[in-house]
């Protein structure tokens, strides 16, 4: 089967690695995600990943409890590096050459983000995991995903979540919520749908970069999305 995309940016929340735990990294879940990424890469697709840190530390939540926002956000960025290293380890167990590139320099554990070097890694068939967000406080890992996707010239952002797309309301709380199969960037912003934050959506809109929101927890879904199966919700012009 031919893939719909040549180069994708996969956005994973920190919670994706958590499984059913209250916090932290579940090695079994991480191994399953790595296995699916390896399957997709075997199709010849170039994969970049941006990972969050919400399973270990969430800067916004800490700042709401009185911590300085910039300090809390930097702590959140460090949490994403821990997750990136865990994912790198899981991917390499599947024989996938992986590089972690951080927006905050820490040369002992990962290489600093250099755009041309990261593009070269993708061209050589390596998976690149981008950690530490944008390297700046007040910006989410969603915004980092949009930024890195633009810099890597990705064809699409694949946002893996707990639900199978974008709904009119939170389907976990509202049984009447209905799912969108397609929606525009402006509708997402106007209806204040919690897909990605407004900065990330605006960045994608300005650069006409599509976003596909899908259920990461269903095995095989990453492969289905890249092959163009009609799952999840597509955000586009």
Descriptive account of the structure:
The protein contains eight helices and eleven strands. A nine-stranded mixed beta sheet has the order 4-3-5-2-1-6-10-11-9, sandwiched between helices. A two-stranded antiparallel ribbon has the order 7-8. It has one domain: Carbamate kinase (3-Layer(aba) Sandwich). The longest helix has 25 residues, at 69-93. The protein is α/β, with parallel strands linked by helices and 237 residues long. It has helices at residues 27-41, 59-64, 69-93, 115-123, 141-151, 185-190, 198-206, 221-226; strands at 7-12, 46-51, 98-102, 111-112, 127-131, 156-161, 166-167, 179-180, 182-184, 211-215, 233-236. Helix 1 packs across helix 3 (69-93) and helix 5 runs parallel beside helix 7 (198-206). Strand 1 (7-12), helix 1 (27-41) and strand 2 (46-51) form a beta-alpha-beta unit.
Q: Under the CATH scheme, which architecture would be assigned?
A: 3-Layer(aba) Sandwich
Order of H and E elements: EHEHHEEHEHEEEEHHEHE
Highest-level CATH class: Alpha Beta
- Could you give the count of β-strands? 11
User: What is the terminal-to-terminal distance?
Assistant: 27 Å
What proportion strand? Answer: 15-25%
Q: What's the CATH H-level homologous superfamily?
A: Acetylglutamate kinase-like
State the major sheet. Answer: 9 strands, mixed
Helix % is 25-40%
Shape by Cα distribution: globular
| Mean of all residue-level pLDDT scores | 95
Structural class label: alpha/beta
CATH topology: Carbamate kinase
């Amino acid at each position: 089967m031919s893939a719909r995309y040549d180069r994708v940016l996969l956005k994973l929340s920190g919670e994706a690695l958590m499984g059913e735990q209250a916090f932290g990294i579940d090695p079994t879940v991480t191994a399953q995600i790595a296995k699916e990424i390896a399957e997709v890469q075997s199709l010849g697709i170039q994969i970049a990943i941006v990972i969050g840190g919400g399973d270990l530390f969430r800067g916004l939540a800490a700042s709401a409890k009185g911590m300085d926002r910039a300090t809390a956000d930097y702590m959140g960025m460090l949490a994403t590096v821990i997750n990136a290293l865990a994912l790198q380890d899981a991917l390499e167990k599947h024989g996938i050459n992986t590089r972690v590139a951080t927006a905050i320099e820490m040369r002992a554990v990962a290489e600093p983000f250099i755009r041309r070097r990261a593009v070269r890694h993708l061209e050589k068939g390596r998976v690149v995991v981008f950690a530490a967000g944008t390297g700046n406080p007040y910006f989410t890992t969603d915004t980092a995903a949009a930024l890195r996707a633009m810099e890597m010239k990705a064809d699409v952002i694949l946002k893996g979540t707990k639900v199978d797309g974008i709904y009119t309301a939170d389907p976990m709380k509202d049984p009447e919520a209905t799912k969108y199969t397609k929606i525009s960037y402006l509708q997402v912003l106007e209806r204040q749908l919690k897909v990605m934050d407004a900065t990330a959506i605006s960045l994608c809109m300005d650069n006409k970069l599509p976003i596909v929101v899908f259920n990461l927890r269903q095995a095989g879904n990453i492969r289905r999305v890249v092959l163009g199966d009609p799952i999840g919700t597509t955000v586009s012009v």
